[in-house]
Amino acid sequence: MSSPSTPSQRTATKAVIPVAGMGTRFLPATKAVPKELLPVVDRPALQYIVEEAARAGLPEVLMVTGRNKGSIEDFFDRTPELETALEAKGDQSRLDAVHASTDVAQVHFVRQGEAKGLGHAVLQAAAFVGDEPFAVLLGDDIIDARDLLLEQMLAVQAEHGGAVVALLDVGAENISKYGAVAVEEAKVSGDAAGDEVFRITGMVEKPPADEAPSSLAIIGRYVLPPEVFAAIRETPPGRGGEIQLTDAMLKLVDDGVPVHGVVFSGRRYDTGDKLDYLKAVVQLAVEREDLGPAFAPWLRDFVADLPVEGASPA
C-alpha cells in the first residue's frame, strides 16, 4: 500500500483566485468597477476563470478580495429581482445567462486585508485549502475553453506531486516582464497530445533580459501542494517589498519538492492591459457563434479601410 504522502493519494478539488488588486491600468473605469468585472464581450473576465476551474473538476472556488470589491461577491450571488423580471418577460436566454454566473461553482470569499503581494494573497487560502493540492488562477489570463491547460497541470501534479506552473515562451525581449524559470534539458513528457513538461530547477522574478535563465515565463496558472503555505510564511518580502509567490516556490525547489512546468502552446487571452484587453475582446467575439458571422465581415472591411502606417494622407 502506498503511503499517504504519495501524489496519487490526494486530488485537488479547490481553486483560489486572487482579486484584491486595484486595477490601476484601467483607471478611471476601475474607480467604481473592479477590473475583474470589466466585460470581455458580455461576460466579465472573472467568470471565464471560474468556468475554467469548474471544467477542470474544481467545484469549490475561493476569491481573495480586498477593499471595494464587494461587487464581485454580488456578481456571483443570486439576484431574485432580476430573475423575476426576466421570467415575467419570458426572456429565457438572458435568464439562463444570469443563472450560469451563479451556478457555475460554489464561490467563497476571504479578505486579504493588506496588499502584500501574490504570495501573501495565496496564504489567505490556507484554512480553505487544508491539506490537499489546489490550483491558483490569476484573473488577467483567460485560457481558451478548447485548450485543457489546467486539466493537464492537474494530471502532472497527480503523477509527480509537488507544484506545477504554466509556462509560456515569451522570447528574450519580453522576459523581464515575467517570472522566469530554469529547467532541466530533458523533457519529462510532451507529444502531439499535450504540451511539453519540464522539471524546474530555478526561478527569478522579472529578471533583466541578459540575466534571465530562459525565455520561459510563468503565466497565471499554478497547481500547488499544501506545503507552499509554510514556504510562504518563511518567505521575506522581495521585489517591490511584497511577498512573492515565485520566491516561495523557489524555496520548494531548494527543499527538493518537485516543481514542474507545462509549456503552454494553446490560445491565451491577456486582459491585463488595455491593448491586450482589446485584442482579447475582438478574438473572443470573432469566435462566438452568435456574433462572429456578422462581426468578422465587418472587421475585415474596417481593417481594409485603415490607413497604412506611415503612409501620407490622400
Strand content: 15-25%
Domains, number: 2
- Largest beta-sheet details: 5 strands, mixed, barrel
In whole angstroms, the N-to-C terminal distance is: 79 Å
Radius of gyration: 21 Å
By CATH's scheme, which homologous superfamily of the largest domain applies? Spore Coat Polysaccharide Biosynthesis Protein SpsA, Chain A
Helix/sheet category? alpha/beta
In which range does the helix fraction lie? 25-40%
Compressed to H and E, one letter per element, the order equals EEEHEHHHEHHEEHEEEEHHEEHH
Query: Could you name the CATH class of the largest domain?
Result: Alpha Beta
Shape: globular
Kindly state the mean pLDDT as a whole number? Answer: 85
Corresponding CATH architecture of the largest domain: Alpha-Beta Complex
Strand order of the largest sheet: 8-11-9-10-12
Query: How many DSSP-defined strands?
Result: 13
Uncertain parts: 1-8
Per the CATH scheme, the topology name of the largest domain is: Spore Coat Polysaccharide Biosynthesis Protein SpsA, Chain A
Number of helices: 11
Pfam families: NTP_transferase
Catalytic activity: alpha-D-glucose 1-phosphate + UTP + H(+) = UDP-alpha-D-glucose + diphosphate
Family: Belongs to the UDPGP type 2 family.
Protein name: UTP--glucose-1-phosphate uridylyltransferase
